[in-house]
Design brief:
Chains A, C: GO terms for molecular function: magnesium ion binding. Chains A, C: Keywords: Thiamine pyrophosphate. Chains A, C: Belongs to the transketolase family. Chains A, C: Its cofactor is thiamine diphosphate. The complex is a heterotetramer, with two copies of chain A and two copies of chain B. By secondary structure, chain A is an alpha/beta fold. Chain A folds into two domains: 157 residues, Thiamin diphosphate (ThDP)-binding fold, Pyr/PP domains (Rossmann fold), CATH 3.40.50.970; 126 residues, Rossmann fold (3-Layer(aba) Sandwich), CATH 3.40.50. Chain A is built from twelve helices and twelve strands. In chain A, the strands form two sheets. Chain A has a seven-stranded mixed β-sheet with strand order 2-1-3-4-6-5-10, sandwiched between helices. Chain A has a five-stranded mixed β-sheet with strand order 7-9-8-11-12, with helices on both faces. In chain A, helix 3 runs parallel beside helix 5, helix 8 crosses helix 12 and helix 9 crosses helix 10. The relative contact order of chain A is 0.14. By secondary structure, chain B is α/β, with parallel strands linked by helices. Chain B has a single domain, classed as Rossmann fold, CATH 3.40.50.970. Chain B has a five-stranded parallel β-sheet, sandwiched between helices. Chain B is globular, with a radius of gyration of 18 Å. Classes of the chains: A alpha/beta, B alpha/beta. Chains C and D meet through helix 3 and helix 5 of C and helix 5 and helix 6 of D. Bound molecules: thiamine diphosphate (2 copies) and magnesium ion (MG) (2 copies). One magnesium ion binds next to loops of chain B.
């Protein structure tokens, strides 16, 4: 995928593993509220919860490699008055325990927080079994479940704090691949609310999670070519911010979605359904197309699938047909 | 702290043959406390179970849906737990310190609803709405609609992991509250149960009691012809549980079993309750056809007559 | 949901349980090909496979109540040269064995046929745990999996015969609730191909499976009010018939989708994604909204959610704004 | 019908300290037939395993990714199966009558790939592409890319159900072909395994052999500290399997165990292979840190030196 425009110069940006914010925030929440517990499936290390376990050994519940049990135990802990954060690789948490998520978490309205770690293609070389790119499509349709995809460490921490306060089932995707800070100073996460990171009039790029920074880069590049792209960050996939989407459709006339997920069913699907209901406009979808990914590192796969400033740029030009 | 016995109403009248009253009549029977003396408790449970079955079969007939076979096999266990053993009462359903029962074999919801009605947790007149549009009495229990329901079940193999979670919560709280979970024997074919058993053993959950309704029948066939569980007690023991076998229709024996929990060993307890699907009705008992068959009016009348003398 | 127009008179139509066609076709296939086997999870009766079991006792493999095992065993049978039809209630097959469907069936490209019995709200009164209304959204996004939703017994039989011939993983939703024959005499199922059951110019109703007859009824009613509705039956959800959808959008300018499933992510989602990509038009979605259903019978729930001629009629008028 | 022994190449040269060759050198070693005599077979397997480990550690080092600890614990089992026991050879990978091995602990793909290379199933030069873009050597095995791979694994708890399916297929065909499945011990915490064990027992799958790599370590901790499996043999026996315990690094003992399958009892066989994660490398052995740690060039050199004398 080659860029159609020259790249704008990029500022040097430190990259963060959102699991660090995750781990620190859980420790903070646990220190403040004795009801906070964590449930893992032999995933203490991959969730960076070693320090949590040192500080709260009884409150780190490791059920072993048993995802159905893990979510069920989480539901039971919620019944027993705890606030469980179930922390497991997103691929296994969602694919292996989907009925428990549907029934024990959502349908039962239990106060359980499901934390999908290292989602998307964070485990690039490990292959399709370890890619969690279906999770947004699978979870978004489950009633009564809030689905959050933070874009940077600050948003991760805020989303977790909100989840701890909120009574009810929540899924949070906690990213492992390095991301820069994308939200402005003083940012406050509001569930269900899109964030306008850049104003624009020709097209709107709606991105979620790890790819928000790439959407911003693409907007920089497009500006050089005289294309004014609005950039919306969409941290909540469910409930989706219908107003922001409809305004984008109405005001900019075209939408490109970007996600570290399948192009079907997830953010792109949610936006498409909203758009045709309220204000039909042309759309393009950047993400993983309908295929199992080949072997490759995360960054190689991002480029391979065009989940990059260049790929977004191309999708914008395609939807604008110029 | 067992709640004081509620007034015992034993007013069920003999059924008019061929005529099916809307509910069992005579519910609720209420809970009975330990101070009543063992014989009185057993008599109360026997009568309670009889009235629950009366109510259940009429309810299933009226709804035209239900799982009467697997409901009758667990009625005595449920009656023993809700009418006496468990520390939970209608004014305590939100008490964090309540004992909990999770009906993992959620298809037997009819037995749970009629038992909860008998114990005063839900208004008996609701039984007439079983399976009706907008009813609180869904085909499988829904905790959002009934406060006394601890978990939404229906898909098999969900209850034991949840029970492990409530038991860990109690242990973290240093609370003596207990968790009971009632499973089908066919249900034990679900691997999630064995995951949960390992966790329960690892965490030393002496406060957790699982009861398996060992009626030797599942949906379409005998368990032994589908996916045999034997040697079941050996399996459960190898998974780190205390195992007790009991006649699941003998209230006195059930009382003894539940009184022995938590086990001194610190292990969780698995009760193998030997039962009969459809018990005690002659034409239902041990008959796989009665998994979700709905009794005709004549069959209800026959069953009610048999229950009179049971 | 009340009809906005008078109902057209409906012809008396015999209703069929598609499981009968299912059972008869599996017997026919098994008689013709010794590789055909069936795998069930204590679901012989609910799949109407009693007679199959009598005729081919060794080839009806009942693993007990164990859905993960069931799909894995099916994958192994395929590896061993068999053509396994895995036959289980759609709710449990899809929710409980989703990772096995993703990995053992689709990613492994095994020659396995997954038959989701009694889907949608066939188990109305049994509640949300037994409703399989997420299955289309969940399975549609899995690469390499063909997803078929037959509308009547003839299409059921044809889809199964095609699945047996086709090498690769296929999911077929086999309906239990009574449906009339909707396809014309001489009909031939073609995978990936929509069927135009009625021509029309003002709007297109795209329906799948059990609700196709309701779409036809709605078109009858709308005709009385002078609204010309095209009716497309969409037996294959994946791959979706892009050409038919784009033609409908272009030629009729508005689309209403109808499914016995959630309004998000399934047929409606697939059509919305196609439309915004190729020819944006307004859409409405008939199905189960974002909620767990209350207690009620199948037919009561259909009416409750407006999955009826009257509901479709209302959705059409809404999208046409008249 | 064991295939004739392929020419044995034992040309591995001692490594230059600090210098890591691209692959192990000397692969493939080929299969050895029964007619070679037991001592020759054992010598061949020992040398094969040594070369496989050489190759594997260099491959993991070069890729900067892999699960070397859990690969070294199963190398001897894999070598025994692929270099001698199993009736499958490179020109037979599509033969319906081949024996099958399913690597359920798919994270140990590196051991499988190097073993397949040693046995001639994949070109040794492919090993240099491990984990690289578009490689056939993915982090977990993919049967669409490698004909000798029977199942795409990686998520734990998938292999045993699949193996049950291949074994049922063989039984339906009246074929003597056998299925082997290799699992991790931590993996046995997945309930799907226990479901499959019940099915295997019910179907009397004597043609099925499961091997558990009992290295007593899982990803983040010791098994006993996570979710203990003991008494493991009792569990497996209660699930209807023959149980054999063996030193999983002793090729002769492994040969004896596999020769005894199918068991006369008609039951499936579970082999508890007692192993060490990271065996035989002094600084890796029995050390949980080596689950997916990648060895430095110095560590590779040290390990290769230790392998010379192993
Ligand atoms: C996950 C799942 N698979 C299948 C079913 C369908 N089902 C309902 S009851 C039943 C049989 C249960 O047998 P058992 O546990 O012995 O209970 P009993 O019939 O004796 O009450 C089955 C298979 C289900 N409810 N959940
Ligand atoms: C379903 C699932 N959950 C979690 C993981 C992550 N994981 C990969 S390897 C591993 C530990 C496996 O332990 P064991 O089976 O003992 O294998 P060993 O580490 O000894 O090779 C875990 C938890 C996984 N691959 N699949
Ligand atoms: Mg039973
Ligand atoms: Mg291990």
């Amino acid at each position: 995928m080659t860029a159609l425009t020259a790249s704008a110069p990029r500022a040097e940006r430190a990259l963060h593993d959102c699991r660090d914010a995750y781990a620190a925030t859980l420790i903070e929440l646990a220190a403040a509220d004795p009801r906070v517990v964590v449930v893992v499936n032999d995933s203490t290390g991959s969730s960076k919860l070693g320090e949590f376990g040192k500080q709260f050994p009884d409150r780190l519940i490791n059920v072993g490699i048993a995802e159905q049990d893990m979510v069920g135990v989480g539901a039971g802990l919620a019944n027993g008055g705890k606030i469980p954060f179930v922390s497991a690789a997103s691929c296994f948490l969602t694919a292996r325990a989907l009925e428990q998520i549907k029934v024990d978490a959502a349908y039962s309205n239990n106060n359980i927080k499901l934390c999908g770690m290292s989602p998307g293609m964070a485990y690039g070389e490990l292959g399709a079994t370890h890619h969690s790119i279906e999770d947004l499509a699978w979870l978004r349709v489950i009633p009564n479940l809030t689905v959050i995809v933070p874009a940077d460490p600050v948003e991760t921490a805020q989303a977790l704090r909100w989840a701890a306060e909120h009574t009810g089932p929540v899924f949070v995707r906690v990213s492992r691949m390095g991301v820069p800070d994308v939200n402005p100073a003083g940012y406050e996460f509001v569930p269900g609310r899109a964030v306008t990171l850049r104003e624009g009039t020709d097209v709107t790029i709606i991105a979620t999670g790890t790819v928000v920074s790439r959407a911003l880069d693409a907007a920089d590049d497009l500006a050089l070519a005289g294309i004014s792209a609005r950039v919306l960050s969409m941290p909540t996939i469910k409930p989706i911010d219908t107003d922001a989407i409809v305004a984008a459709a109405r005001e900019t006339g075209a939408i490109v979605t970007v996600e570290e997920a399948l192009t079907s069913g997830g953010l792109g699907g949610a936006v498409a359904e909203t758009v045709v209901r309220h204000h039909p406009v042309p759309m393009r979808f950047v993400g993983v197309p309908d295929a199992f990914a080949p072997t490759g590192s995360t960054s190689w796969l991002f480029d391979h699938f065009g989940i990059s400033a260049a790929g977004i740029d191309a999708a914008v030009r395609d939807v604008l047909d110029r | 702290m067992t709640t004081a016995p509620a007034p015992v109403t034993v007013s069920a009248s003999a059924p008019v043959a061929g005529l099916v009253p809307a509910t069992g009549g005579g519910l609720p029977v209420g809970r009975i406390g330990a101070d009543a003396g063992r014989d009185a408790v057993i008599a109360h449970l026997r009568e309670g179970a009889r009235l629950i079955r009366r109510s259940d079969i009429q309810m299933v007939h009226a709804a035209g849906l239900g799982h009467i076979g697997g409901e009758f096999s667990i009625t005595d266990v449920l009656a023993t737990l809700y009418l006496h053993v468990m520390k939970v009462s209608p004014d305590q359903v939100a008490d964090p310190e309540r004992d909990r029962l999770i009906l993992s074999k959620g298809h037997a919801a009819g037995a749970l609803y009629t038992t909860l009605a008998a114990a005063g947790f839900i208004p008996p007149d609701q039984l007439a709405t079983f399976m009706q549009p907008m009813s609180m009495l869904n085909g499988h229990p829904d905790r959002k609609k009934i406060a006394a329901v601890e978990a939404n079940t229906g898909p098999l193999g969900h209850g034991l992991p949840i029970a492990v979670g409530t038991a860990i919560a109690a242990k973290l709280d240093g609370s003596p509250r207990r968790t009971f979970v009632l499973l089908g024997d066919g249900e034990l074919q679900e691997g999630s149960n064995w995951e949960a058993m390992m966790t329960a053993s690892q965490y030393g959950l002496a406060n957790l009691t699982a009861v398996v309704d060992r009626n030797r029948l599942q949906q379409g066939a005998r368990v032994v012809d589908t996916n045999d569980l034997e040697p079941l007690a050996d399996k459960l023991r190898a998974f780190g549980w205390e195992v007790v076998e009991v006649d699941g229709h003998d209230h006195g024996a059930l009382l003894d079993v539940f009184a022995a929990v938590p086990a001194a060993s610190g292990k969780p307890t698995f009760v193998i309750a030997h039962t009969f699907k459809g018990y005690p009705i002659s034409f239902m008992r041990d008959n796989v056809a009665w998994h979700h068959k709905v009794p005709s009016a004549e069959q209800v009348a026959l069953a009610l007559a048999e229950l009179e003398t049971s």
